[in-house]
Amino acid sequence: ALPKEDLPAAPAQDTQAQTNPALADLLRVLLKAKAENIGVAAKLIAATSELDALAMGRRDVASLKGWRLDVFGDEALKLCKGEIALVADGSMVKTIPVLS
């Protein structure tokens, strides 16, 4: 057996790069609600991989640019920061501000 000092170092875990599955699910719900509100397919606003990237803390995604930012991205960022919550209102999903 090798002495401890000769063992390779364990790779550092990048906590920023770990997906938060619950947050990714909330982003999917928000995306679906926003897409239904404007009558556009959700995949035209954001790809599933973008939602996972947002849940990991990445901000270099197409859904945070241009018209997508206006219809989805702004509220997606607020959801990621815990500034808004999702609520069911009959058959609709709405956002409400979170009081801190």
Which features would summarize this protein structure in a list?
single chain; alpha+beta; two-stranded antiparallel sheet; 2 strands
Write a structural description.
The protein is an alpha+beta fold. The chain has a single domain (18-97), classed as DNA polymerase, domain 1 (Orthogonal Bundle), CATH 1.10.150. The chain is 45% helix and 12% strand. It is built from 4 helices and 2 strands. The chain has helices spanning 21-38, 42-45, 48-55, 66-80, and strands at 84-89, 92-97. A two-stranded antiparallel ribbon has the order 1-2. Helix 1 crosses helix 3 and helix 1 crosses helix 4 (66-80). The model has no long low-confidence stretch (mean pLDDT 91).
